[in-house]
């Protein structure tokens, strides 16, 4: 018997968490930002301290992002971190 739940996409995650499906695009955006930040840090083999200096944030912010502790990190802050690390952030509206 599983002691956890699995979601195959963000909409399923919203269902599991009891969130409105209207939250799915926001969650997806955050997931993409976090993934891109983590990939860059790994690709460039940056320490949390080095990444924090480049991103103009404290080390604990980078550590929280890498560890997925994002309750106190806004989407705006994630965008700032990504851009300061040299990533190009674009929003597409269809």
How are the elements arranged and paired?
Layout: H1 10-17, H2 24-43, H3 48-55, H4 59-67, H5 75-84
Helix pairs in contact: 1-2, 2-5, 3-4
Describe the 3D structure.
This protein is mainly alpha-helical and 94 residues long. It has a domain at 23-84: 434 Repressor (Amino-terminal Domain), CATH 1.10.260.40. The chain has 5 helices and no strands. It has helices spanning 10-17, 24-43, 48-55, 59-67, 75-84. Helix 1 (10-17) crosses helix 2 (24-43), helix 2 runs parallel beside helix 5 (75-84) and helix 3 crosses helix 4 (59-67). The longest helix has 20 residues, at 24-43.
Descriptive key words:
94 residues; mainly alpha; 434 Repressor (Amino-terminal Domain); globular
Terminal-residue CA separation: 41 Å
Q: Name the CATH class of the domain at 23-84.
A: Mainly Alpha
Number of DSSP E strands: 0
Low-confidence parts: none
CATH superfamily placement of the domain at 23-84 = lambda repressor-like DNA-binding domains
Mean pLDDT: 92
Computed CA radius of gyration, to the nearest angstrom? 15 Å
Question: What overall geometry do the principal axes of the alpha carbons give?
Answer: globular
Number of contiguous helices: 5
Tell me about the biggest sheet?
none
Q: Quote the CATH topology of the domain at 23-84.
A: 434 Repressor (Amino-terminal Domain)
- Secondary structural class: mainly alpha
> What is the element string, with H for helices and E for strands?
HHHHH
CATH architecture of the domain at 23-84: Orthogonal Bundle
Helix content: 55-70%
Strand content: under 5%
